[in-house]
Here is the input.
Amino acid sequence: MNNALVLNNEFQQRNENARNGHQALLLKISKSNEKLKRANRRLKKKVILRQKLLANYELRLAKSMADLFALRKELAKLKEVKESDNARIENLVGNVKRLKRKLLHLQRMDMEWNHDEFSIKVRELKQEIYKVGKIHGLKGMHFVKDINERKELEKEKTELKQIEEENEKFQQSIKNIENRLAEIVPVNANFEMDFMETEHFLSEPSKTSE
Here is the structure.
């Protein structure tokens, strides 16, 4: 009778121990599940934040690429204008040099004759055109042509000044484009740095999970 009682007590004790162990295991599993749920929620938040950052970065990158394409197109157009202006300037510079040589020639002539004497010579040569013929006529026309070329020189100087002003405006346009291009690169670089810092923050373990 005593043996049966002892065995019964041992059996009940074992059942109690097993039941306690099972409850402890269930509690441990429940805690683990809660930790996993919290970790899953944090992971979802990180994924959503990362997706938003990527979407924002893609939008800004697309806008920057569009701006860059437009600026490159505008720069190519300005280069074509510059090449055309350079050709015009080169032509005008050649004309100015030629007219300067003629001006020096006229200045030397002015040094030899005063204005009244020069006018008398022109009138005399015009009269000789009708008296003597083609040879003297061509000589007389040479002086008349020199006088007209003085006016042409002044006109060329005015045009050259206008071209120089246009060239300065063009150089300023190039500088403005370079500044706009320089603004795009730092913006993307700074955003990339912000994005990398955010990535580093997201990759760090949360203090609440400890």
Observations:
- Residues 100 and 153 are 8 Å apart (CA to CA).
- The chain has three helices and no strands.
- The chain has a mean pLDDT of 67.
- The two ends are 55 Å apart (CA to CA).
